């Protein structure tokens, strides 16, 4: 289903993209909380095991009765086994929760993108768009797995270690708590500040590299033809080198931070042990507590070691969240009305376009200005015109891909509905077909056609292919309907590609069929043959056919010519481009 609503939580908090990202993941809290608890439990068990073992060894040296250490012996066994079990649960629950959360989030981002396409996404280059959909959405995974879960575990261990040390020797607790705060907050915070700019720059550089890579791949033939491959590769190399330099700078900040945490760990161990020794010498601390305090100071920093790396990941996550926010805040070119009028298709439908004005950008001249056109039920209207005259814009407005600022488009049978009052998905259920940039997917011929009507029967598939005059060819292939097509029909000829796209549009069988330049890129003979087949196959269907062809239009019910966004002439069917067209006011209004 096409959603026009933004991804929940992504609008509103304009300046806090990371918080917005987090809010999008909140619905998964029931799975995320046990994962975070298991991670914290595993770290606590490791620290508890070391501290209890230290106590047990020191106490055992005093040769006490076995009963007085039996609880500690059981605790050591339980903690050793529990640590492994909790580590396993942490990995299992953490990955399960995070992969589900990211999969759900990616679907919602994609759904939010659909209303932007095809008119709203040209602002983003295709490689960059891909990076946003793949890498930037994956940042949500890192936010949970590499930032939030380690931070939760580190906080739990630091609090438990400081609490235990304070109970045993208050001044040692204060020193340990302070140094843990510095290692857990100040050091990662500084690393975050140092690598913040690099994180943002690296995301932008990666997006640039992805866009360049897509250009290099898709434009390989043109780059080779114009000997421009060297320059393009040099730009890609430069982008790679920039990423490497930024990575190095970030790695330096992280290693420095890790080094400082190690120094603090040493300092805390020495400081706490010295305080404990003094207290023991003064008779205020039993010897067994002395060992526990020294071990506690040493191991409590272990849980903090992933924090500098977590800070570094956080800079990348923030940059990704900002880029996702940019994408998702892009206003959809056409929004659905709050209360949509229903569009039914239980009778033949037609369309009436009246005084239509469309602008692609507010500051651009109108692509269509005062265009009026009738598409009577069951008639085939051909729309011709020079390149840039507005033919595709008219189709896009009819399919609710672009908005119109003045005039009206009404669709229906006996009762007509204004398109503005209907949802885009309802409109495209009744007005659809072959858009100018129609795409053949890298899958079988059958799957490519079924895209238009997944429930179509074998007979319907064969009928559509037959009407597009491609059935014989499909059935002559060794794999027939199961033949795999290359990306965008790379493994078929231009004529076969257009006929497959036509078969798909015919299979969709919408009440109003639109075909935007179905003969584009074909040689004149093939184009004439395809056009004649199209006009034959669409007899009795409401059809708007856009073409550059001048001949072969004799079978059309009406031929309308656009020029610079206005209707230049209109003529009843039976003419072709070689005959003079009559001005629009002289055309039979029934057409
Ligand atoms: N997304 C867009 N943003 C800005 N301007 C656009 C956009 N799409 C089309 N235009 C402009 O609108 C005008 C009409 O373009 P349109 O694609 O409708 O022409 P066309 O008749 O279909 O041309 P062609 O036969 O070459 O496909 C042109 O001036 C074009 O530059």
Automatic annotation (TrEMBL):
SUPFAM superfamilies: ABC transporter transmembrane region, P-loop containing nucleoside triphosphate hydrolases. InterPro entries: AAA+_ATPase, ABC1_TM_dom, ABC1_TM_sf, ABC_CydC/D, ABC_transporter-like_ATP-bd, ABC_transporter-like_CS, P-loop_NTPase, Type_1_exporter. This is Thiol reductant ABC exporter subunit CydC. It comes from Streptomyces oryzae. Keywords: ATP-binding, Membrane, Nucleotide-binding, Transmembrane, Transmembrane helix. Pfam families: ABC_membrane, ABC_tran. Residues 35-316 form the ABC transmembrane type-1 domain. The chain crosses the membrane at residues 32-57, 63-82, 147-168, 174-194, 251-277, 283-304.
